[in-house]
Amino acid sequence: MLQPATTSQDAHLPQLTLTRNPGVDLDMNWVRSVQANTSAIERRAATLPARRSVKKDYQAAWLLKAITCIDLTTLSGDDTAARVRRLCAKARHPVSAQVLAALDMQGITTGAVCVYHEMVETAVAALQGSGIPVAAVSTGFPAGLSPFDLRIEEIRRSVAAGASEIDIVISRRHVLEGNWQALYDEMREMRSACGDAHVKAILATGELGTLRNVARASLICMMGGADFIKTSTGKESVNATLPVSLTMIRAIRDYHAATGIHIGYKPAGGISKAKDAITYLALIKEELGARWLQPDLFRFGASSLLGDIERQLEHHVTGNYSAAHRHPMG
Ligand SMILES: O=C[C@H](O)COP(=O)(O)O
């Protein structure tokens, strides 16, 4: 049986230790040595949802842990300041006071709020005093095909507007063309433009073709200074999956073994069910260890996961399921 992931002592504000990845020199021998055994990865990934059964208080503890690791996200063309302010209010109080009190918990917030550049100032103002960071998707999100100098400028503007985390998108063509030097150089320049803001590199894995490409792109981004690697924008036709996650977190494990540097992981896109969140947390604990279950090293990129988690917690406390429309935000 899995042990509870959250206690009333460790579930307060996001525990950001603000360690950074300085990056390392590009090592092409290391990159070329990286392989991915797709069938073995898929077999291992297929066993994960089936054998996880976490019930009652243990389940509630894991779900509270999951909330603290959510980058609560809105990335829609029709985003408004009012919607972003509602999202921020939800990030401050993701679970009703009644449910929290029944669980003997307090001070739970989401890990961050994630928005487009235009919404950064609104989110920063709405989260003032909460300690909740604002993450901005940047660099011509989601395709990353705007002129390079404009992508760099976008990062600078988001940081100036108050974003303390920047989610960049990589140029998928550099991976598909095997142009690893270009990917490394791009990552280094983007990291440099971020200054003190943490940088998450979105690989858009659904567009990279093979798991070997995913593994190599993960490694290059870490060498180039990414603090986190993130699966997807949420806009690809295939977003976060367990095989991709296994591939990326093993790349994180290898990078840590070789350099001693901790890199965070953010699966994003299409994660909307509480039981899937628990599967991801269990995978992280098994492959990387409990240190990676803190919000400075693990986040879910999700726009609707919180709503399902709330429903499950409410059921745990009251014995009844509320209608999904009662949890419209998050
Ligand atoms: O980075 C976060 C994703 O865009 C969220 O995707 P989602 O709307 O499928 O949860």
TrEMBL record:
GO MF annotations, alphabetized: deoxyribose-phosphate aldolase activity
EC number(s) reported in the record: 4.1.2.4
Reaction(s) catalysed by this chain's protein: 2-deoxy-D-ribose 5-phosphate = D-glyceraldehyde 3-phosphate + acetaldehyde
Gene Ontology cellular component terms for the protein in this record: cytoplasm
Pathway(s) of this molecule: Carbohydrate degradation; 2-deoxy-D-ribose 1-phosphate degradation; D-glyceraldehyde 3-phosphate and acetaldehyde from 2-deoxy-alpha-D-ribose 1-phosphate: step 2/2
Keywords recorded for this protein, A-Z: Lyase, Schiff base
One of the protein's GO biological processes: deoxyribonucleotide catabolic process
UniProt-listed CDD domains: DeoC (cd00959)
Pfam families in the cross-refs: DeoC
Recorded family membership: Belongs to the DeoC/FbaB aldolase family. DeoC type 2 subfamily.
Name this protein carries in UniProt: Deoxyribose-phosphate aldolase
Organism: Pseudosulfitobacter pseudonitzschiae
Record gene name: deoC
